[in-house]
Amino acid sequence: MSFSQVHEEVFRSINDLGKHYPALNPFAVFLAEYTLYVLAAGVVVYWFTRSSPNRRMVVQAVLAFGLAEIYGTIAGQFYSHHQPFAVLPDVTALVPHEIDNSFPSDHTILFFSFCFSFLLVRGREGWLWLALAVCVGISRIYVGVHYPVDIAVGALFGMLAALIAYRLTPKLSFLNRLLAVYEKIENRLLPSKGNARNM
């Protein structure tokens, strides 16, 4: 059996769940389309805890995403294919999506860049974020917009970039200086309770 046949079989085994268990479809659509807002809310909460380690973690995650997107763009120049719903017959397509190069999955790159960055810094709490990223990746296959290889490569790029950013960010002194300037301005405009009592 060729790689393409195995690849299609793995895709079908996940995507066909939408036919066999239609009650799961709304949950899969939520994971595939709307957990982006959950991730965004998490980033906002981490940032506005006004904790320097949390803010450095967010900066690290943003850097990781940027790096992973570069990897993904380069990879997409060497290999490409359209979404499975546009190519294969009888695909369970649960969300609208334009037809373009689906390799690798940008959605997966985003989630693994951020969630793996959170894992590297937050430990046990980060495992919950990583579990969310895995669920989102699987859901993108379930709803018919990506093949397993799109998800696997997107996850690999996201985690690799997160590791690089984790090592690199502490060495970028200008980022620490920018963050210190930002926090100084923020404390003047929006003093915390402790700072307000001391003013």
UniProtKB/TrEMBL annotation:
<feature type="transmembrane region" description="Helical">
    <location>
        <begin position="102"/>
        <end position="120"/>
    </location>
</feature>
<keyword id="KW-0472">Membrane</keyword>
<feature type="transmembrane region" description="Helical">
    <location>
        <begin position="61"/>
        <end position="82"/>
    </location>
</feature>
<feature type="transmembrane region" description="Helical">
    <location>
        <begin position="151"/>
        <end position="169"/>
    </location>
</feature>
<dbReference type="InterPro" id="IPR000326">
    <property type="entry name" value="PAP2/HPO"/>
</dbReference>
<dbReference type="GO" id="GO:0050380">
    <property type="term" value="F:undecaprenyl-diphosphatase activity"/>
</dbReference>
<feature type="domain" description="Phosphatidic acid phosphatase type 2/haloperoxidase">
    <location>
        <begin position="58"/>
        <end position="166"/>
    </location>
</feature>
<keyword id="KW-1133">Transmembrane helix</keyword>
<keyword id="KW-0812">Transmembrane</keyword>
<dbReference type="InterPro" id="IPR033879">
    <property type="entry name" value="UPP_Pase"/>
</dbReference>
<dbReference type="InterPro" id="IPR036938">
    <property type="entry name" value="PAP2/HPO_sf"/>
</dbReference>
<protein>
    <submittedName>
        <fullName>Undecaprenyl-diphosphatase</fullName>
    </submittedName>
</protein>
<dbReference type="GO" id="GO:0005886">
    <property type="term" value="C:plasma membrane"/>
</dbReference>
<dbReference type="Pfam" id="PF01569">
    <property type="entry name" value="PAP2"/>
</dbReference>
<feature type="transmembrane region" description="Helical">
    <location>
        <begin position="127"/>
        <end position="145"/>
    </location>
</feature>
<feature type="transmembrane region" description="Helical">
    <location>
        <begin position="27"/>
        <end position="49"/>
    </location>
</feature>
